[in-house]
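User: I'm putting together a teaching handout on how sequence relates to shape, and I'd like one worked example. Could you take ABC transporter ATP-binding protein from Falsibacillus albus, show the sequence you're using, and then write out its predicted structure as tokens right after it?

Assistant: Happy to. First the sequence, then the structure tokens directly below it.
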Amino acid sequence: MLNLAHIGKIFNEGTPDEKVALDQVDLKLEKGDFVTVIGSNGAGKSTLMNVISGVLSPDAGSVEIDGKEVTGLPEYKRSRFIGRVFQDPMAGTAPSMTIEENLAMAYSRNQKRGLKKGVDKKRRNFFRESLSTLHLGLENRMNAKVGLLSGGERQALSLLMATFTEPEILLLDEHTAALDPSRAQLITELTKEIVQKHQLTTLMVTHNMKQALDLGNRLIMMDKGEIILAVEEEEKNKLTIEKLLKEFQRIKGEQMANDRAMLSI
């Protein structure tokens, strides 16, 4: 479903501030894979997500989604088959529009535009049923402005909007990091339910090692623009946070940097 081949990305090339963000990265996701991505700050995780979504163009390598070459395809065209939820709850929704209007925009993402009504009775019922699966009562507040929702409610809505058209690829970019622990747990559980229900091919960046181990069937660890560890399902089920940290130290010959990856244990 997703194939990254020899992806390279350098920022400020040829200057004193040159930084290799991605160094010959190869990654393949089969249909239904749920891969969690961990690594220290500056490891290249967000750059990887931006290359997949089309926000950034790679300097080298190719991106294929469902067998189609999309390396040169701009972000707005890839959005038809990529769903993405960001760390910032404000990023995935339009705050001045209602819940229903936000859902209508997301629903039409992969459809041809026309002059018919944006929301009819059948679609409104579909939105209401979809919202009810979040167990937040949002189905009774469809005319409320999204800007009035809490961070957790907006993130739940963003997750629903990114997934209810069942995209080929779902990108989760630290989508629980800005939430308090109880809301983060809620979004984590919703993520698990939605991905399993639709068998979505998912790539999730997280600083939370426990979350990385609890979710998904595969795990990769990045450092300095490279994938330094790839763990398949059987081995992942036996992993612990302590084993992960020891594996990083074995590979790199040093302890993982004392950033949020360590603090999120």
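A couple of points you could highlight for students: Residues 52 and 129 are 31 Å apart (CA to CA). The radius of gyration is 19 Å.
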